Every structure is written in structure tokens, then in C-alpha cells.
Amino acid sequence: MLGGNTHVVGKVLSLFEVHTQAIRKGKAHKPTEFGRLVQVDEVENGIVSNYDVKDGNPADVDQWTPSVSQHKAIFGRAPKLATADRGFYSAKNESSAHAFGVDHAVLPARGPLSSKRVKHQRQRWFRRGLKWRAGIESRIATLKHRFDMVRARYKGEHGFKRDVGWSVIANNLVSIARTREKRKALHDAKGKRAA
Q: Domain range spanning residue 183?
């Protein structure tokens, strides 16, 4: 440290949670955050189909193919539409999604766009996918605040992962119950109209 080397392997960032890591997201207003990076995959009706507590701060671009592969392993088929934020974009990721059987891969490109790319990203299905992707931000906020994923109650790395898992389970139970109630109300309303 005195020699100017601030990148020390095994540096302790928290006395209470030794598994805490420094996370750099590249945001000017939050240059460095402390905690753990959690990737969340969501399907219809707000159900979290997969989550992973990452070790370190891996690049988003490297997480796309394993995520689509995991979805296919869970559901037996690739999603018709798969979307993520700009950090996941690469031509390789778009082609790998199509190779898995994804009909529409909605990955907005970074930086200045060519006219061909602008035309591609202005298509109706692409814009709809972007709107759907924006919903994951509210899912993350719900997991953090409503289901208390923002603060782990269990101690240690395994405890943290357990706490994240409980947050996901609680979210999914509420989402499933809401969906069932909506479907029941819709079914009842159709039955009343038919009578």
C-alpha cells in the first residue's frame, strides 16, 4: 500500500463480511460499490428463472451465452425473445442466441451506430423487447427492497448466497400467486359475460 499498489489480492473490504468485493460499474456517480454482483434472469410474469452470485466483477458480455444456455436447459427450448442491456451486446452474442434458437435477440449496441444498426434497432419487435427489458430494473428493485436482498441477514459467503436464494423464492411465490389471481379473475369475467 505504501508503495502505491492498491490492487492487492485478498484485500479485506469488510471486517464483518469478508466475502465483500469491490464492484466497478463504470458509472460516474457510483465509481466503486462494495458487495457482490448478482445476475438475475427473468421470464414472463415477473418470475426469476435463474440467478447467480458472481465471483468478482465479470464482464456482462461474457454472461450472455451461459444465460441463454441455462434457460434452454431449464425450459427445454430457447426463449422466443431474449434481451439484456448494452453491456451484453456483441455480434458474437447475437449470433450465438440465434444458434440456440432465439427468434429475436434484443441487444442494443454501444457507441455510434451504423445506419444498418439504427434500422435494425428501430424495428417494432426490437423496441418492444427494450421496453420489456426495462422491467427487469423494477424486478431488481423489488428483490432488493421488498424482499430485502439489499442486506444479507445470514453471515458468510454461503449465507449471502442463501439469502439471495430466499429473496428469489419469495419473489417467485408472490409473482405466481398474482398471476394465478389475475387468470382466475379473467376466467370468472369471461364466464359472467358468457352467461
A: 21-194
* Nearest partner of 78 among 101, 98, 99, judged by Cα: 101
Residue 5 lies in a domain: no
**Number of independent structural domains in the chain:** 1
Q: Following CA atoms 111, 116, 120, 121 in sequence, which dihedral angle do they give, to the nearest 10 degrees?
A: 30
pTM for the model stands at: 0.76
Beta strands in 44-172 (DSSP E): 47-53, 81-83, 104-106
> Domain with 58 in it: what CATH number?
3.30.420
Q: How far apart are CA 148 and CA 127, in angstroms?
A: 31
Q: Decide: helix, strand or coil at residue 47.
A: strand
The C-alpha atoms of residue 186 and residue 86 are separated, in whole angstroms, by: 37
Per-residue pLDDT tens digits for 24-79: 666 667 676 666 778 899 998 889 999 998 887 788 899 999 999 999 999 999 99
- Helix or strand (DSSP H, E) at 134: helix 124-141
Q: Is residue 2 part of a domain?
A: no
The cell numbers describing 188, all together, are 370468472
- Positive or negative torsion for Cα 86, 90, 91, 93: negative
